[in-house]
Design goal:
alpha+beta; Glucose Permease (Domain IIA); 2 domains; seven-stranded antiparallel β-sheet
Length: 397
């Protein structure tokens, strides 16, 4: 029994002493991340489609509101025309009544109605004449009252239309502002979609590259497949150059790398700073040509990502998954993207971009590099011997 316990104890100690690679990544994890970005892209596109539908619906509401405003304006015009006509009718009715009374008038005195009525020769004639006067008076009052009520109703409707029109104008303005807001939302979603789509393309390249190297989903990359050599010595990325801008705080923001240039930038070849595997080749949102390379530093057991931006062109034979040495050029110095002049923007970070938990996304990567600098990390100068200061040239790698 003691012998068995001794053997078990030895096994437990041996297992505990076996080093575990916390950075071990399987191809399946790459594939899962690829699917994650595809799902995000699908959700993003669904949000864009929904926003476009809302924009179309809102634009239709604006057109309906414009039509309603026009119809109300036409109604106001019609009401004003009717008011003018009613006023004319009142004048005409008054004139007709006056003419009738003048026709029956017996004298030019002020008591025309009475003179006419009491001009009767018989009782029957008097009653008849009184009836005529009463009917004419009632008719005149009735018609005049009806016309005045119509005018009043039209004027009230005109005021009502003015209030409705104000409300519709406010509604139209709100709808137009909504369209602008929705347009901004769509623009934001579209920009995010470009970023997501870019990461999808990067992961598709990565997965394909490792599959081409014989990796299966359960294989640990660098152990079961795609086994490459150590990074070796870290070297400068150009043979002749000088630093124009340092790693760290700059112009009110954080500069994640070193900017490097020389007197003949467009003819300057860019080399990997160490041996490694090309992990991605892409253009950022501003159009900068970029290459990133993954390195494994065997002594410390650390993975690094080096990044080379603003290239004028790529080397003709590079592709994702290709193992390169520090003597294989990857492109030429340039001025692509958001750049104020031809130079190489070069970054080095102690993680694998889009893979390790610290750098699983672009935002995570940028935050990680900045946080590392607060803990003493010096960017490219941490691993490469550059002349101190800026604009101090070197003539060898």
């Amino acid at each position: 029994m003691r012998k068995i316990l001794r053997i078990l104890l030895i096994l437990i100690i041996c297992i505990a002493l076996v080093p575990h690679d916390t950075n071990a990544i399987t191809l399946g994890e790459y594939e899962a991340k690829l699917q994650q970005y595809k799902d995000e892209a699908a959700a993003n596109q669904a949000a864009i489609n929904k926003t476009e539908a809302e924009i179309a619906e809102t634009n239709q509401q604006i057109e309906n509101t414009k039509t309603e405003i026009k119809n109300l304006a036409d109604e106001v015009t019609k009401l004003n025309e009717e008011i003018a006509q009613y006023n004319e009718d009142i004048k005409e009715k008054s004139l007709q009544t006056k003419e009738l009374f003048q026709y029956f008038q017996m004298s030019n005195g002020e008591n025309t109605y009475l003179e006419y009525a009491f001009g009767a020769e018989t009782v029957t004639d008097l009653i008849y004449r009184m009836a005529i006067v009463e009917q004419m008076t009632e008719y005149n009052e009735k018609v005049t009252k009806e016309l005045e009520e119509m005018i009043k109703a039209n004027q009230e409707r005109e005021k009502e239309i003015e209030e409705i029109n104000k409300d519709l104008e406010v509604k139209q303005k709100e709808l137009e502002e909504k369209v602008v807001s929705l347009g901004n939302t769509k623009s934001s979603l579209t920009e995010g979609g470009v970023t997501i789509q870019g990461q999808i393309e990067i992961y598709e390249d990565i997965v394909e590259a490792y599959k081409n190297q014989g990796c299966l989903s359960h294989h640990v990359i660098g152990v079961d497949c795609a086994v490459n050599g150590s990074a070796g010595v870290f070297r400068r990325p150009v043979s002749v150059g000088y630093i124009t801008s340092e790693f760290g705080s700059r112009w009110g923001s954080f500069h994640r790398g070193l900017d490097i240039s020389n007197g003949d930038p467009y003819n300057t070849k860019i080399y990997p700073v160490a041996n490694g595997t090309i992990s991605s080749i892409w253009q950022d949102l501003y159009g900068a040509l970029i290459v990133s390379i993954e390195h494994y530093e065997a002594v410390s057991g650390t993975y690094y990502t080096s990044m080379y931006a603003h290239l004028s062109s790529y080397a003709p034979n590079i592709y994702v998954g290709k193992y390169v040495t520090s003597d294989d050029y990857i492109g030429y110095m340039g001025n692509t993207g958001y750049s104020t002049g031809p130079h190489l923007h070069m970054e080095i970070a102690p993680c694998r971009l889009y893979l390790d938990s610290e750098c699983y996304s672009w935002n995570a990567y940028t935050a990680f590099v900045q946080n590392q600098s607060y803990n003493g990390f010096k960017g490219p100068r941490q691993l490469i011997n550059f002349p101190s200061g800026t604009y101090n040239p070197w003539y060898t790698r």
